[in-house]
Amino acid sequence: MAYENELHLAQLAVQRATLLTRRVYAAKSKGTLSKSDASPVTIGDFGAQALIIAAIKHAFPSDEVVGEEDADDLRTNEALRSQIWELVQEATLDDAEAEAVLGGPIKDVDGMLTALDAGRSAGGAKGRIWALDPIDGTKGFLRGGQYAVCLALMVDGEVVVGVLGCPNLPVDDKERLDTSIGADQTDAEGKGVLFSAVLGHGATSRPLTRGALAEGTTIKMKPLEDITQATFCESVEAGHSSHGDQAAIAGKLGITKESVRMDSQAKYASIARGAGDLYLRLPISKTYQEKIWDHAAGVVIVGEAGGTVTDAWGKKLDFSIGRTLSGNKGVVAAPKAIHPEVLKVVIEVLSSK
Ligand SMILES: Nc1ncnc2c1ncn2[C@@H]1O[C@H](COP(=O)(O)O)[C@@H](OP(=O)(O)O)[C@H]1O
Ligand SMILES: [Mg+2]
Ligand SMILES: [Mg+2]
Ligand SMILES: [Mg+2]
Of 47, 187, 236, 304, which has the fewest beta carbons less than 10 angstroms from its beta carbon? Predict the structure, then answer.
C-alpha cells in the first residue's frame, strides 16, 4: 500500500501523544493559557505537538509540519516549560519496537522546544507537509467532552494520509454518538479509538493502546436511504459554526431528530464509522478562515469511508493554499449519495440570508 510507513508512523505518534493528553485530562489542573485570539491552550496541546513533531522529524527529517502551536510561551515561562517537559518524558509507548519507530523519547528540553517550533511551516502546494492539531476541541478537552489528536500528511497540496486519536469515544458501542460530558469520561475503560485512512485505500478504526497498534477494522458510513431519518452533528460551541443556519437546513431537509453536538474532529470520525450521518459547519463570521489542521485528517477519513466533504458552496476543500482554508467557507460532510441533496439546501439557506 502507498504511504505505509507514513501511516504507521502517524498512527504510533498519535497513539503516544494520547498517553500524554489522557494524563493531563485526568489531572485537576490542565495548565490552561489564553492565546492571542482568546482561545484556550493547555500543557496537553504543547506536549502532544512536541511528541508528534519529534517523531515525524526522526522518520522523515525533510518533511515540513503545519502545527497549531509553537514554543513562544514555553521559552518565556520556565514553570510551564518544566511542567510540559516532565509530561513529555513520561509519555512512552510500552512496546520497544513501536517506540523505536518514533525515535524514542525526546532527548532534552531544547529538543522539545525545537520540535514544537518545527510546526511553523507556511504550508502550500508543493512537497510533503504534515498538518497537526495536537488537541482539537481544546474546549471539549477542558469541559470533559470529546477531543481529538489529529495528524495528516499532504503531498503537493492533497491530503493522502489522515489519523485521528479520539480518547473519549467508545470502542465498542459504535452506533452511539457519545456526547456525555464530565465524570464518566475520565474513566478510560472501554474508551479510546484510533481512526486512519490512506487516500484510495479505505478507512479503518482500532482501539487506542499504550503500546503496539491493535488490529484494525474497515469502517464505512451508514447507508442512508431516507434523509429525514438522518442524524446531524455540529460543534458544541455556537461561536464555531451557525447553529441557527444548521437548524434551518435540517428543517428544510425534513430532519426531525435533534442535532448531536460534539467537540472536535470526533464528528468526522463518528460519521465515518456510521454513528451519525451528516456534519454541518456553517460559518458564523465573514472573515474567519478555517485552519487546515482542523479538517485534513477528518476529510480523508470520511472520504475513504464513503463520504463527500465540500465547503458550504460545494467547493472541494483546498489544503494547498497555506495554513488556512482561505478558498473555502464552511464544511458539509455527508454520504456520497445524499451529499448533492444536502448541499442544495445548504446553498438555498445561505443564499436567502
Ligand atoms: N470562529 C470560529 N469559527 C470556526 N472555527 C473556529 C472558530 N474559532 C475557533 N475555531 C476552531 O474550532 C476548533 C474546534 O472545533 P469544534 O467546534 O468542531 O470542536 C478549534 O480547534 P482547537 O480546539 O484545536 O483550537 C478552532 O481552531
Ligand atoms: Mg486551538
Ligand atoms: Mg483544532
Ligand atoms: Mg488544537
Answer: 187
Q: Which atom, in ligand 1's list, is nearest to the CA of 263?
A: 19
In terms of C-beta density within 10 A (0-12 exposed, 13-18 middle, 19 or more buried), how is residue 23 classed? middle
| 312 pLDDT above the threshold of 90 | yes
Q: Say which CATH superfamily domain 4-218 falls into.
A: Fructose-1,6-Bisphosphatase, subunit A, domain 1 (3.30.540.10)
Cα angle 37-268-262, degrees, rounded to a multiple of 5: 60
Q: Model pTM greater than 0.90?
A: yes
Catalytic residues, by residue number, are 45, 138
User: 129 in the Ramachandran plot: left (φ > 0), alpha (ψ -120 to 50) or beta?
Assistant: beta
**Given ligand 1 and candidates 41, 177, 291, which is best to mutate, with the most ligand atoms within 8 Å of its CB?**
291
- Distance, first Cα to last Cα, the chain: 46
pLDDT tens digit string along 233-288? 999 999 999 999 999 999 999 999 999 999 999 999 999 999 999 999 999 999 99
Q: What is the ipTM of this complex?
A: 0.99
Q: Which CATH class is domain 227-351?
A: alpha beta
